[in-house]
Amino acid sequence: MSSGAVNNKTQSNGRRPVTATEFVIRGRPVSRGLAIGNIVCLFGDNRQFYRTRIAPPDVEKEIERFSAAHRRACRRLERIATAANSKGDNFASIFDVHLSILEDSSLKESIENAIRQHLFNAEWAVKIVTDSYIGKYRTIPDEHFRDRYIDVEDIAEQLQAALGGGRNRVHLAPGSIIAARELRPSTLAELAANPPAAIITETGGWTSHTFILAREIPAITGLRKLMRRISSGTKAIVDAYAGDVTFNPTEKTIAGYRSSIEKVGKFSASFDKFPAGEITTLDGRKIAIRLNFDVPSSFHKAKKLGAQGIGLYRSEYLFNRFKGFPSESVQAKAYREIAKFAGEYRARIRTFDLSVGQTVEYSARRENNPALGLRAIRLSLAADKHFRTQLRALLQAAYETNIDIILPMVNGVDEILVARQILEEETDRLSKRGVEYGKPRLGAMIEVPSAVVCIEQILEEVDTVLLGTNDLVQYVLAVDRDNEGVAGWFRTLHPAVLLSLRRVFEAAAKASKPAIVCGEMAGSPFYVPILLGLGADELSMNLNSILRVRRVIEAIAFEEARELASVLLSKKTAAQVEEAADIFFQKHWAHLLSVGTSELFRA
Ligand code: PEP
Ligand code: MG
Q1: Atom of ligand 1 at shortest range from CA of 316
Q2: Is 516 close to ligand 1, i.e. is its CB under 6 Å away?
Q3: Which candidate in 269, 420, 447, 511 could, as Cys together with 459 as Cys, close a disulfide (CB 3.0–4.6 Å)?
Q4: Backbone dihedral region of 39: left (phi > 0), alpha (psi from -120 to 50 degrees) or beta?
Q5: CA–CA distance from 11 to each of 16, 224, 228 (Å)?
Q6: Which ligand gives the minimal distance to the CA of 492?
Q7: What's residue 262's pLDDT?
Q8: Is the CB of 519 under 6 A from ligand 1?
Q9: Quick check: is 518 catalytic?
């Protein structure tokens, strides 16, 4: 097997033919494991969909499904266009153009024909037809008309979104491997009931929400031109230790991997021998492990492994599940259940960490730079109706439970003061309504540089802080955490990141307030000794990281970790820090590496 090698000739259309020849593409593993299965390709950007073939008797039903979606999309655009026109918005004419393209009978007929003649599912028919329109527009020499292709892309999105509502649930066959250019968290959430055996994508970083959610599924990203080189049904082996995906594997290759899969199975079974209870380093430093909660079953398992309470609940999961803001009572019920699981060790529930594009009309509020835009606490405060609802739900859930309300992406004390004021107002409102409520504590995510700089002031205003290292690395280094093109600059061990972390741990210790690390760093056995050495004593992680991390904590001495941190803090570049960390691990903790677990180190 050679990495990236394909023996086939490239076709005139630039695509590689799909044949049964074995070939390997190498990417970056983002969630460890091995899997063998058949590829299911997933398409679309904002709305993702599968390509399926419909049975001939179902053609008319599928056409009606498309027509209903088309009507919904037209009505929605009419509403937007009317609103924009009545306000005199200068971009109102765009929506009129969109509407005229959407209502163009030849577009609609072409899509219906694609369903009827080729038995495509509606989503795929929309894609094929709109792609052909886009292709035609792109070749027009006149720049003004050429740019119409962007409008068609927008319309294609609207149609896909409208189709989403009535979409049948896709049941993946056991052992399916999802292949996509990029996978959306909401798509993954839809697959929760029958998860894929593995995920392979062209883009997406280690800390992207999709891969955080997928932590228990072997996953590889950074697979260049993946979607051009494969099609649904292709057999593949995903080796998410090495980062290799073998397509069309021979029987010999499959046999080799099957024996590796058995070995990995035995290895993870041996993890079950860990006793539950207090977790300490060899020299007795107590470290609290908490759970980044997603589903209730994860909590019961985590508790058995020694996890104490919930270190982070990303309430956007609820938003994704309900495809919008859930009602006050739905939220209150969900938060209460989570708080009950957590018990005396508390549940840290983060308010909605959403970007504006996720919540309002996509075409009307496109941001050039969503990571720096109207999102997280900014969005909550800008449209505080939903924030107030969420706070009321949290207050009610906090009745006789232990909840910390965590504010995402604060950049200083300002947002905390405003949020606290709103919290007080909503407490009054509940009190007047005669509703039972509790007294949640208040906390802040520390994930932007200004919050690190102002950490002392922030700690005066909150009861706890959560270190969101995923965003902290992104914002300290100004590197998009989801952009494959700059993945090489996402250096978790950059000196600026280490200094930021140390600053927060020191300030929190001085203020005697907890600082919980809840980004992906906390779940990595390679980074945990470094975090401990810098001063961390509370780590919150996904279920399947707990045993690996626990094993490392219990096998090292705090004093050694401190020595490691001081060595790393003396380095000037990320490369020097990484090299020094590798050397230190080899010298001091070779016993952790010698049991065949070297692949457990690094994410
Ligand atoms: C983080 O930024 O590290 C974090 C925990 O939050 P999220 O990954 O949801 O942004
Ligand atoms: Mg974050």
Answers
A1: 9
A2: no
A3: 511
A4: beta
A5: 6, 18, 12
A6: 1
A7: 67
A8: yes
A9: yes
Backbone phi, psi, residue 482, to 5°:
-110, 5
Centroid of ligand 2 to alpha carbon of 470 (angstroms):
6
Instruction: Tell the residue nearest (CA) to atom 10 of ligand 1.
Output: 471
Q: What percent of the chain has pLDDT over 90?
A: 53
List, for residues 316-335, the tens digit of each pLDDT value.
989 887 878 999 999 999 99
Mention every residue, 6+ apart, whose C-beta is less than 8 A from residue 411.
Answer: 448, 450, 451
**Under 8 Å between Cβ of 348 and 516:** yes
Which residue reads 């062209």 in tokens? 202
Residues present in the chain in total: 603
Query: Which element (helix H / strand E) includes 450?
Result: helix 449-453
pLDDT of residue 439 exceeding 80: yes
pLDDT tier, 593 (very low <50, low <70, confident <90, very high otherwise): low
Rg of the Cα atoms in the chain: 26
468 Cα–ligand 2 center, Å: 5
In 419-477, which ranges are E strands?
441-446, 464-467
107-156 pLDDT, tens digit each: 999 999 999 999 999 999 999 999 898 888 878 777 666 667 777 877 88
Residue whose CA is closest, atom 8 of ligand 1? 470
| Span from the CA of 207 to the centroid of ligand 1 (angstroms) | 8
What is the arithmetic mean of pLDDT over 203-226?
81
With a cut of 50, say whether residue 361 has pLDDT above it.
no
Atom of ligand 1 nearest to the CA of 520: 3
- Whether 353 is in the pocket of ligand 1, judged by its Cβ within 6 Å, is yes
**pLDDT given for residue 92 in this prediction:** 64
What are the φ and ψ backbone dihedral angles of 31, each rounded to 5 degrees? -155, 120
* Residue 519 CA, closest ligand 1 atom number: 3
Ligand 1 centroid, distance to 451 Cα (angstroms) = 15
- Decide: 471 in ligand 1 pocket, CB within 6 A: yes
Residue 385 pLDDT: 94
Q: How far apart are CA 147 and CA 167, in angstroms?
A: 31
- Hey, what amino acid is at 74? C
Kindly state the helix (H) or strand (E) to which residue 290 belongs, with its residue range: strand 288-293
185 lines ligand 1 (CB under 6 A): no
Helices (H), 482-541: 495-510, 528-534
CA of 447 to the centre of ligand 1 (A): 8
Closest CA to 241 of 225, 272, 270, 263: 263
Mean pLDDT of the chain: 85
- HSE-CB for 155 with a 13 A CA cutoff: 29
Nearest CA to ligand 1 atom 1: 468
**Residue 43 contacts residue 49 (beta carbons within 8 Å):** yes
**541, 473, 521: which is closest to 311 by C-alpha?**
541
Q: Is residue 70 annotated as part of the catalytic site, yes or no?
A: no
Yes or no: say if 448 and 465 are a contact pair by the CB < 8 Å rule: no
Rounded to an integer, what distance in angstroms lies between the CA atom of residue 343 and that of residue 63? 51
Marked catalytic residue, from 41, 70, 74, 518: 518
Give the active site residue among 209, 494, 588, 591.
209
Q: Atom 3 (ligand 1): residue with closest C-alpha?
A: 468
pTM of the model: 0.72
Give the angle subtended at the CA of 141 by the CAs of 137 and 142, to the nearest 5°: 90
Element (H, E) at 244: strand 244-247
Say yes or no: CB of residue 229 within 6 Å of ligand 1: no
